[in-house]
Each structure stands twice: as C-alpha cells, then as structure tokens.
Design a protein that fits this description.
Layout lengths: L1 H26 L12 E9 L10 E4 L5 E3 L5 E7 L3 E5 L6 E4 L3 E5 L10 E4 L2 E4 L7 E5 H4 L7 H4 L7 E4 L2 E4 L12 E4 L2 E2 L11 E7 L2 H4 L10 E6 L5 E15 L9 H14 L16 H8 L6 H5 L3 E14 L3 E11 L9 E16 L2 E15 L27
Parallel strand pairs: 1-7, 13-16
Antiparallel strand pairs: 1-4, 2-3, 2-5, 5-6, 8-9, 10-15, 11-12, 13-14, 15-16, 17-18, 18-19, 19-20, 20-21
C-alpha cells in the first residue's frame, strides 16, 4: 500500500508540473532578440544520479529565459529550446549543472556533500554531520581565533544560533527555570564540569553545542539546559614543532557627552537661585557651591573631567601562546604555555593576568590499548580599580567639583 501511494503522488506532481512547463518553454523568447530569428528545436534526455538510477523531479530550465520542465518517473524530460541556449539542471542535495542543449542528452548529477562529512561530537562518541538528527552546532578553531579575546565564551558570541552570551553567562535557547540553574553542562575532553574560563582559545580544536532534547538525551537531567562539548587540540605525528601565536590590541575610550564645566555649572545654579530669590549679586556666589573648596576651584578656573580622571584613554590587551607538538607511531605529545591580559578601562587597574599550562599526551600501549593524559593548570591574578564601582551615569549633569587643594594645585 505504501508503494501505491508513492506512485500516485509522483504521477500527480508530474501531471501538474510537466505539461504546462512545455508550453511555457515553447513561447519563452527573450525580448532582446527578434522572434523571427529564433530557431526552436525539441530536446530530449535522461537524468540519473551518481549510481545510475533515474532521478524524479529534477528541475531543468533554459538559461536566460523562464522556460523549463522537470523529469518524469524514469528520469526523462522533453523541452523545446532555442538554438545556442544552455540548460540548467538543479536538484536539492546535488550540484547545479549548466550544459549545452543537444538532441538526446544523458545527464549524470553529482552529489553536493559540502559539510556532510564533518565529524561532530555527540555524547560519548562522534558521528558524521550527515547522520545527526538533533540540533547541533559546531565552531572550529579557526573561527574561535578570529575574535581577539582570551575568553572562550566571548569568542562564541554571535557564532551559534540560540546561544546567548552575557559576559561569562551562557544560555542555550533562553532560561528553562525560574529559580533553578540555567547554565549549560560543560564537558572538556570527556571530563564533566569543567570551566571554559580556564581554557586558552589556542588550545581548542572544536566546540560542539547540543541544543535540543534529542542530542542531549544521553546526559539525562544534567543536560536539560543544553550541553557544550569542548575538544582540545592533540599532537600530530612527526617531528617536534614549535609555534607561536599572539596579538596585541588597543581599545580606545568610548565617546561620551561633554561633562559640565565650571562655568556651565555656575550659570545653571545662578539662574536657579535667582529665580528662587536666593541670588541677587556676585556676592552671593559662595552660596551656589557645596563647599568653600569648590568655590575656590571655580574662581581658579578648575573643574573635574571625570572621564579623564576615572578611565584610561587607551586600554591594551594581549595574548601569547607557545606550543610544542610532535610524536611518532606510539607516542605523541602537545604542550602549550600561554599568557593573556584583556586589560581594564579603569585607571589604577592592571586588569586580569591569566597564565595557562596544558599538556596532552597519548601513548599506544598495545594494538587495542591506548592511554593518555590531559593536564591543565591555570593561574589568575586580578588587580581591580577602586573606580570600578563608581556610579558615573549622572556625572555629566552633576557637580564638576571634587576636592580642591590650593596648596598642591589639584
């Protein structure tokens, strides 16, 4: 019964699409060429797949016009084509072909398997991308390193559909719980519960993000918020190689509206006090300021530019990694040492220094026994600024005066 249904369905498509297309092809003549010089001839042919089997529903169009048709149940087609024109053959999952029209055409379609042979990590194993049925996304090393940052989470921002990155917080397809934990499960080289913040982006080979229930089922309730699987780089066989990768970047302070100057602050307060009946002459100027020191600063033509006082004009960031890698048929090893500092825009801060050391060693003990060691050491040193917690939102409209010291001219 299934076979009969499929046959009726295919004939229904051919009946509805095949006949009108022929009529359309016969009348499709470009407006740029006079109709009397067009020589139209019938073209027939057969289309097969890579195994020689007839292909049903392949779209065939005349290049440069709207005429076209599709193949029937046996892969055959018939079309009236103006002389000198080419035919375009298209089918989902196969490469497009543009061929010169001839009387009896034999066309063999080639599969377009771009991306289908890539290997992705699922659960405790790997499968080809063409065999994946769940919602899985993969980011490779070259994409991760395109973002100049030492934070792996930041390098994923905007790379994966459904993954929200907010600082060190990651959410896959939004929050799933009101009061519970919404962070995804992170697995590094098969070890559950690792921290992405401890990894050097130069050490990562691929990051696979499992987003739906089908792909995360093997992890049970722990994978309810999604799973992020990180695979680090392994050594390749061959001579020992030494490589370096690094960068230095400069970030400039963002532009803000100008802060209040001393004169602007004085004028606004003077008008307000005058309207309130609290100012009548310059002798009342002292009452406009919060302290004698602020008034002295105004008289000296000094005020505080809070942007300049609190933030650096240029913030420097850098990351450096040295890698040693090599091995033979039995043993391979990869060692890396890295340093990174993403800087801090606040003055009196040195940012966060992060030092990493990683070793991946694999040894083949027997034909059916492999042993390996993955080692990761991370050290952080953070120098925070006392200005980081300073509320700066209202400073543009606030007083431009802090403490004024006449003796030290500050």
């Amino acid at each position: 019964m299934n076979k009969t249904f499929k046959t009726y369905l295919a004939y229904g498509l051919v009946a509805s699409l095949f006949v009108p297309a022929q009529v359309q092809a016969a009348t499709a003549i470009p407006t740029s060429v006079p109709a009397e010089v067009q020589q139209v001839r019938p073209v027939k042919g057969n289309v097969v797949d890579e195994n020689g089997e007839p292909m049903i529903g392949v779209t065939i169009k005349v290049v440069g016009s709207t005429g076209g048709t599709i193949t029937d149940m046996d892969g055959n087609f018939s079309l009236n084509v103006p002389s000198g024109r080419k035919l375009q053959f298209t089918y989902a999952g196969y490469k497009e072909q543009n061929l010169s029209a001839s009387t009896n055409m034999k066309v063999k379609m080639e599969p377009d398997a771009v991306g289908l042979e890539e290997v992705v990590v699922i659960g405790f194993g790997t499968v080809k991308k063409r065999d994946v049925t769940g919602a899985v996304a993969q980011v490779k090393s070259d994409v991760i390193l395109q973002t100049p940052t030492s934070d792996v989470a930041t390098s994923l921002q905007g790379r994966i559909t459904g993954l929200d990155v907010n600082g060190t917080e990651l959410r896959i397809r939004g929050n799933r719980s009101i009061n519970g934990n919404n962070a995804p499960l992170v697995i590094i080289d098969g070890v559950q519960g690792g921290s992405m913040g401890d990894l050097n982006p130069d050490d990562i080979e691929t990051i696979d993000v499992l987003k739906d229930a089908s792909s995360t089922a093997i992890y049970g309730s722990q994978g309810a918020n999604g799973v992020i699987i990180i695979t680090t780089k392994k050594a390749e066989k061959g001579k020992m190689q030494v490589s370096y990768n690094g960068y230095v970047t400069a970030a400039f302070r963002e532009q803000h509206p100008d802060y209040r100057s001393g004169e602007n602050y004085y004028e606004a307060n003077r008008i307000a006090a005058q309207n309130a009946g609290q100012w009548s002459s310059p002798t009342d100027d002292l009452n406009l300021f919060s302290s004698n020191a602020a008034y002295a600063a105004y008289k000296a033509g000094i005020w505080t530019d809070f942007d300049e006082e609190l933030q650096k004009s240029t913030t420097w960031s850098n990351r450096h990694t040295i890698t040693l890698s090599g091995g033979n048929d039995k043993t391979s090893a990869r060692f890396s040492i890295g340093y990174a500092n993403d800087g801090n825009k606040w003055k009196k801060s040195g940012g966060t220094d992060r030092y990493t050391l990683r070793a991946n060693i694999d040894h083949k003990i027997h034909q059916w026994i492999d042993a390996g060691v993955n080692f990761q050491l991370t050290h952080r040193r953070t120098e925070n600024s006392p200005y980081q917690s300073t509320p700066t939102t209202g400073m543009q409209l606030g007083s431009p005066y802090g403490y004024y010291d006449d003796a030290n001219d500050i």
